[in-house]
Amino acid sequence: MSLAGTLMYWHLNHIDWLLSVELAIGGMIGAMIGARIACAINSRTLRLLFCAFLVLAGGRMIVAGLGQGANGVSGACFHNNAAVSIMFAVLIGVASGVLSAVLGVGGGVVMVPAMVLLMCIPQKTAQGVSLAAITPTAFTGMLAHRKMGNVDPRVATWVGLGGLAGAVTGATAMNGLAPGALKLVFGAFLVIMSAMLAIKRQSKCD
């Protein structure tokens, strides 16, 4: 599904491949760290802190969407030079990988608002970059679970076909939305995700 979305965003010219690689490297490092510490930390406390982050980020994106121009980028942007940009991209990837492993959330809910609000990446590009960065991590995870017998090929095929249709439809709809409207939608999504995560049942490691 992430691969299909990546190809659609690439076709629509909304992907920065170098940034995607930087985020993917950080994401894989973060996922390994998160897997090691998942049962060694209080995930309930971390989950509540992350919920607060989602509310703040979602609110900030909604405000930006309401008062934005072409891309809605505003505020302090930490990409004054290449070295700083690479550092922030890798750190964002690490954070998304850790949180994905510990809390079971999608890396995009960290990557997209961080790229938009901290690095001033246009909303559509941020979404495309996030999909491209997540694809290798998702594929690696799939292979690992397949070796452990946790993948049902029949179910995966049908889910993949549905995901392919959804990716094409979603990317097409995204391309037709103004950046401000897209920011509003994504900001609202983050706030909803925060509420869902807050009431999520605790895992056995909590």
Task: Give a quick rundown of the structure.
By secondary structure, this protein is mainly alpha-helical.
Overview of the molecule:
Helices cover 76% and strands 0% of the residues. It has 206 residues and is mostly helical. The two termini are 30 Å apart. It has 8 helices and no strands.
- Total number of helical segments? 8
Net shape: globular
**Rg value:** 17 Å
Q: What share of the residues does DSSP label as strand, in percent?
A: under 5%
The helix content, as a percent range, equals: over 70%
SSE inventory with pairings:
Layout: H1 2-11, H2 17-37, H3 43-66, H4 82-103, H5 108-118, H6 123-147, H7 153-176, H8 179-198
Q: Main traits of this protein?
A:
single chain; mainly alpha; 8 helices; 206 residues
